[in-house]
Amino acid sequence: MSSPNTPYVIGHGTDVHRFDTARPCRLACLEWPGEAGLAGHSDGDAAAHAACDALLSAAGLGDLGSNYGTDRPEWAGASGAALLAETARRVRDAGWAVGNVSVQVVGNRPRLGARRAEAEDAMAAAVGAPVRLSATTTDGLGFTGRGEGLAATAVALLYQP
Ligand SMILES: Nc1ccn([C@@H]2O[C@H](COP(=O)(O)O)[C@@H](O)[C@H]2O)c(=O)n1
Ligand SMILES: C[C@@]1(CO)OP(=O)(O)OP(=O)(O)OC[C@H]1O
């Protein structure tokens, strides 16, 4: 089916990046001085990337790789905010409005709680719709528990304007 016949659609996204201590930390569209950076072709902002995948999936527009693949040099080093803003533009061009996006970061650090409102505002400014952010550790288990990298998941709601 090429397009759904409901006024609402949802999408979800997941992203993982390993830490690279030689890079600055960019997460949830903010800089995190003193925290380990994330490896990637772009700035490694797993929270922004998960939100992009959720938005693209909901709109039936593929995913990060099919929109901004590593074979496209123009996206090398791109910020999470730039990818999110371009993704929201593509979703709106496809005829959808963004209701909201909910993102969860999974990992030990950075601790997001103290800057939650700032990060939500930065991500919402890029998307042009409300973004909510939560975080959790994995109780020391797995690659996030060992501090090897960060994961993020996201859900997006789109509606027909
Ligand atoms: N990177 C993180 C991880 C967690 N938090 C906050 O800590 C709370 C407790 O985490 P648990 O994994 O023990 O459930 C969590 O609910 C977050 O509020 C954080 O800010 N940043
Ligand atoms: C964003 C892109 C493109 O710059 O590169 P990365 O920063 O490596 O991020 P990833 O989450 O692996 O997604 C796909 C890529 O297309």
UniProtKB/TrEMBL annotation:
Pathway per the UniProt entry: Isoprenoid biosynthesis; isopentenyl diphosphate biosynthesis via DXP pathway; isopentenyl diphosphate from 1-deoxy-D-xylulose 5-phosphate: step 4/6
Entries under PROSITE patterns matching the protein: ISPF (PS01350)
Signal peptide: none
Entry EC no(s): 4.6.1.12
Annotated site residues (Transition state stabilizer) in this chain: H41, T137
Family stated for the protein in its record: Belongs to the IspF family.
Protein known as: 2-C-methyl-D-erythritol 2,4-cyclodiphosphate synthase
Organism: Glycomyces mayteni
